[in-house]
Amino acid sequence: MHTDILSPKDLFQKDVRYTIPPFQRPYVWTQDDQWEPLWEDVRSVAENYLDELERSGNDVIQAEERTGPHFLGAVVVKQVPTAARDIDQREVIDGQQRVTTLQLLLDAIQHVYESSKEQYIKTASRRLSRLVTNDELVVGEDGNHIFKLWPTRSDREAFRHAMDNGLAVDDFEESLLVQAHEFFKLQVEKWLEEGPGSMEARVDALETAATTMLQMVVIDLGSQDDPSLIFETLNARGTPLEQSDLIRNYVHSRKQDWRGDPWGNLDDPWWREEVRQGRLLRPRLDMIFNYWLEMRTGSDVSPSRVFDDFRRYVDKNDLGSVMETIRRDLATYRDYESKEGRNSDEKLFYYRTDVMQARVITPLLLLLLEVDSVTAIGSLNALESFLIRRMICRQTSKDYNRLTLELTSRIQEGGLDRADEVATEFLKEQTAYSREWPSDDAVTHALEASPLYRLLTRGRLRLVLEGIESRLRATGKSEQPDVPKYLTIEHLMPVGWREDNWPLPGKIDSETETLQRNSLIHTIGNLTLVTQKLNSSLSNSHWEHKRGGLQEHSVLLLNNELMAEPFWNEDDIRSRSRRMAALVCEVWPGPDSDS
């Protein structure tokens, strides 16, 4: 057995064949839970690298050292006996979902790079190709040995079509493997088009981030090693003390004349429930202690150093007063969290930020829960607009932690009674790529041109459509002012359109018209909300059937205007995208909005 910390480049650069054993489950990772977080990690590393490259005067080695690696987890592989002339083989015993996704990501980047006409990008494409395919001279008669990874039997055809740039994926669109590959391709294309720095710098940064700046603990078992013993050894450890346990022990160990229990009800099981903080699952109390300290100190607190930072904080403050403040602030937060917002405005904010998984704003939320609801919601609405507009424009979230802490400090300095004014002014001041509050024009362009159905998670896209519906109902004339949640997203012109039901315009050649149509299918003007049953019944039907189904069953104002449309074509999609973009800018007013 050999254990090492390896990058994807270390793991895949030699000619090797990683196979997924038949007893392993097929590929199950999804956009919401894994692809999106992984892409955000890779993009964040790439953008941090670009920052460090600029600071170091384009010293690549120094930039890599300052950026630092990003840890992805562990992988266990086992050697498979092979003849001396055969390609080296390993079975992926644990971490097969992670390894498969890395291969899809690397190949997606390679695919995008390969389509470029620029020589330096094509050169990068060839380097990446060596990390997803083996040398043809060593793969033998089985052409599938060309791939570094070979999945379980049920996934093989979809994987081959996703990874082979020359094969179509039309018959495998339901495969998660194909969807993941397509998701990464779209994200790469978008980032290369709009990311920071020059195109050459972005190409280099993304390759560097994906191939060398990600790291995994790789346990390489010999052919005689027993995997079950390895797992038993890895898991044979006691439950470690959490950061909150260390804080509690420290508080109780201090000789003070406590009036009652200084810890209060913080041992309640509710505080012990695990919640997600970024890529980590942590007890809720540890997470809140983390964010509370950031709010009080105005500085970044590492999850692994919460206890150390707490001890330093109380060294400068009276412990009794600190614990009284903590109990009060955490009780207020629990009330907010348990009720998912304490009033209708907070409930909507809670719902939307929960969908966006924006826990990074919690330090600011803890501060604003101290002020009256009108002032607080003004600040939270400005922040919500900032987050949603950047989400629509697919802009980075890498600097949100520092931005939140700076905004929290600014509000504390400006006075809580002016929190809404201070927050709006602060966000308007931001001009850096990682902090810009997108204008109406930027949001409109993204909504008209971007395939948001492919770029956003279903929950986030549904959130935008719900916001449009809420704006349409804001006149007060609707019998149902509350927008129903958790409906499904329906394509008006179906993804699987066919000429017999959806004829092309016939104004130019069919190939060009097909490309134009497919580029519009996933834009917001072609999307709506319906129930799951109605979605299933509409499917790939022609427009008359779809319109009739909406007319008979839908009560959404979002669908009302569709009833009068005798046809549904590309011009209708573009026109509706513009109308919906205007409504989005009203729901979430930005730095240049009138309201």
Q: Can you describe this structure in just a few lines?
A:
The chain is of the alpha/beta class. The chain has helices at residues 8-12, 31-55, 60-67, 96-114, 119-129, 156-163, 176-194, 199-213, 227-235, 243-253, 269-272, 284-297, 306-315, 319-339, 344-355, 362-368, 373-392, 400-414, 419-429, 440-449, 452-455, 458-472, 510-521, 532-538, 543-553, 557-560, 570-587; strands at 2-6, 16-19, 70-80, 88-94, 149-150, 214-221, 274-277, 280-283, 488-491, 527-530.
Strand order of the largest sheet: 1-6-3-4-2-5
What's the alpha carbon Rg, rounded to whole Å?
Answer: 26 Å
* Helix proportion range: 40-55%
| Subunit arrangement of the protein | single chain
Largest sheet: 6 strands, mixed
Given the C-alpha coordinates, what overall shape results?
globular
Number of helices: 27
What's the mean pLDDT score?
90
Number of strands: 10
Structural class: alpha/beta
Sequence stretches where pLDDT stays below 50 over 5 or more residues? none
How far the N terminus sits from the C terminus, by CA atoms, comes to: 64 Å
Strand fraction equals 5-15%
